[in-house]
Amino acid sequence: MFNNFFHKMASPKYFYRIAGLLIPWLAAGFATLTLAGLYYGLVKAPPDYQQGDSYRIMFIHVPAAWMSMFIYMVMATAGAIGLIWRIKLAEVMAISSAGVGASFTFLALVTGSIWGKPMWGTWWVWDARLTSELILLFLYLGVIALYNAIDDKRTAARAVAILALVGVVNIPIIHYSVEWWNTLHQGPTVTKFDKPSIHLSMLIPLLLMAFAFKLYYAFVVLMRARCEVLVRERNTGWVRELAETK
Amino acid sequence: MTSDSLLRAFTLLLKRDLTLAIRHRAEILNPLLFFVLVTSLFPLGIGADPKLLQAVGPGVIWVAALLAALLSLEGIFRSDFEDGTLEQFLLSSHPVSVLVLAKVLAHWLITGLPLLVISPLLGVLLGLPGDAIIILLVTLALGTPVLSLIGAVGVALTVGLRKGGMILSLLVLPLYVPLLIFAASAVDTAAAGLHVTAHLSLISALLLLALSLSPLATAAALRISLS
Amino acid sequence: MNLNEFFHMGGYAFYVWTSYGIALVVLLVNAILPLRQRKKLLADIARAARRARRNTT
Which of A20, B43, B171, C21 could bridge across to A142 with cysteines, CB 3.0–4.6 Å? Predict the structure, then answer.
């Protein structure tokens, strides 16, 4: 039965339909969790004794940073599956993840920068985490740029899979080297994004937002994947039929 | 396909690339001049205060080396791509990763080695102490092959593209960051008179990793680019 | 916490609300773009199919 499921999932037409059914549910789940997370994070959680109310930015910044890493892993894994077993859908999932992954990385950077301003007085600090996120953003942009530069989309997907895999091997190395670099050049102030001593009242909204962002990624990647499937399968009968009945 | 013929293929390819490079001396000189020029621009840009120059020297020299390597990398597969030799590589019975290694070695001898040779001069220009210059040489000796190896993957991915050069920087420079960090820090630390065994071990580790993995990735990327 | 305090965010209103605002924009854009792209793709494909049929008849 599982085998049957995988065979069916590999079919773009089946995937298109199933994804279409899942998307509203995932979106609804995301909305619910977000509302709950925002309530617990902005209303119920008390101000931090050190950072006041500014720490609430953490409820966006930290989940966004987690997602930026998570999505890159998914992208690289999907790319590898597409490369090794030549499964079209894996290729589609890989490239569909790039844009939203880059967006989360951007969001982590911007919120990190904004959070840093009241703390350390500058709009940017070369903190280890922020610097790693910046490099991760470049890695994402490289994937997107390479994919757009290659005309044949199947070739593009395979090239991007190699790039993502090379990136994935490098990411731990980059993280470690940036961490180390940061300890060398530490200024007089400790530029670490010290999460306030995590209280349960802060942990709950953090986890809620983390889950919410996962659901968000799920429904957005499915939406993008459906578009990608339409593009790749535009000359097949089922896509033509679908377009004309709309 | 015996290992004997593989060795022959390797040496032939190496010799061919070196011969071609010697005939087109600009290939050797341009990145070198770029390296020297970029490094020399910094004192002009930030002032010639010796303390300042010594502080930024290692980083500046290494960034210039990265850029020079990037500049020189574009040519590594281009002419072979244009005249069909690259396809021949893929069709031959030899493992492509070995052929790639030959090309990368040639590239390093042509562009990396000259950087190494001129670097003491740059060290002097920026006022680096003797210990630091020695370590600069060591980091460049270990690091420039890494630049060639990692860069080759990027070139292989973009060899078929029209404006490949622009994207190449975006793809490759983030991957150079760890090497830059460890190497510049090693020279800095040496300038302060401290031990740099940790740094050099890390750079050696990067070199070994690149040697083992990047020819495979480059070969895979070449196959994809030429499909 | 009353509404005023809520918006004031202990003096950090600008920072907190700008962050959440940017997050909202990023999430909205990423969700809306694929929606519009899908509609456009279906319209393009339908148009191409009609043109193809017209050309062969």
Answer: B171
